[in-house]
Every structure is written in C-alpha cells, then in structure tokens.
Amino acid sequence: MHSSAVNLPLVRRLEAVSFRAWPASSVIYDGSWQIRLTGSHPSKRINCVVPLDPSDYGNCDVRLEKARRRFEDFGRPLIIRETTLMPPELRAHLYDNGWTVFEEVKVMTADLVNAELPETMAHLPTHDIGRFVEASLKVGNEDLSLRSPIAEIVSSIKPNLGLFIKEEVEGDPHATVICVQDNDLAGVLSLEVASAARRMGVGSEILTSALRWARISGAKTAWLQVVSTNVPALALYEKFGFEEAYTYRYWGKDNS
Asked: Which residues form a coiled coil (predicted)?
C-alpha cells in the first residue's frame, strides 16, 4: 500500500464518514489510534483498531497488548485495520511479530452529479428499521439472532438514512441496501441480493434507487467498501462508474 499515489485528505474524509455510517457502540482513542468495539455484533469494521496518523507509532508493543486485553473483555480477537494512514513502522512491527493480512477491502467512489440515473425512482426508502432488518436478514440468509444488534447499529446512524427493500410481494424481499447521505457524500452499505434473484438486474435496480435518492438529497459523490475478491460486486459497481480511491487491509494474529 503506497501512499504516494493516494489522496490522503480524501482518505481521511472517507474514513470519517465511514465511521459515522456504520457506528461502533464503543469508540476510544489511544493517541491517534481509534479503538472500535461492539459487543453485540461481530462486524470487523466496528471491532478493530484503526491507526489514523502515519507518525503515531511509539510504544506500539504496550499499546497493542492493552488493546488486546480490551478486545478480550468484549470476547473479540484483536484486529488491526490498516489504511494508508497507518505508520509503516507499525506495519513492519505486525509483520515481524507473526501477524498476517486476512482480508483486503477496496474503498470506491463515483461521481453522482453527472451519473446517468433514471429520473424516476423504482423504490422509495422505508423508515421502518424493523421491517428493513427482517428483510436484510432474509435476503442474506443471516442468523436471526443478529436482528437486535443490526437494528441497534442502524438506529444509531446519525446522518440522513435511506433503507431500501426490493420486493414484489411484501415479506418476500429480493434485495436490500442502506444508503447514508452525509452532506455531499453518500455511502452505500450492505447491498444484498437474494441468491434466487441474482443475475436478473435486481442489484442494479436497487443501487440505482439508492444513488438517485442520495443525489436528490444533495450528495455529489457516492462511496462504498467492497472485499477485493468479490468479483460480481466489483463488476456491478464499476458499471455505475465507481473507481478505487484506496484499499485497506485487516491484520490478525492467531485468530484469522
């Protein structure tokens, strides 16, 4: 991950909006390291340490051990999320001490102002969080025990929120997506398409509605995060003009 070609102010801005778009229940700082923990939900984005200053590396042994104990209290393995803001010395330290990268994620952005989106919206957002959570669990074939934790996370999102469900018949959802409009930026999160409805244009349809809503709401740029090995999702997003802004990686030790 070479920071020379990366727009660091943009990285900082996208990191800040992504923290607001998918909030952790506990956030504390150790220097400029953000320590994000959520006891009720295992999502890596809300259970990781994110170093946010390339020069803040001192006492990393002690700080990592302190963070490990804190994660242990939450019943979580310690995960470090490496963006281009992480000190290179910390990356070297992790590598030298047996940590490994176990996932890479692309952060992508698209211009909404000039995007070719239809004037009409096929789907309007719902404000019924309970109904949306039920639909997304069903579409993603997820464990129903996550109902309450996901509802809690979605309820705690502060910026303007659009929850989209694509269904022909109520109670039989084909796709769901969350769109978080934060001033001129709009985040696309948790786009899910039911396995039986894939390759039928459903993902494009619901993403179009979310982006159209975001643009009407005042967003000029859309952003999203996608695992770099998710080829079908990358193909869909590239079709909408999304391009890579930067990548980040998750590091784990004895737990990945």
From this structure: none
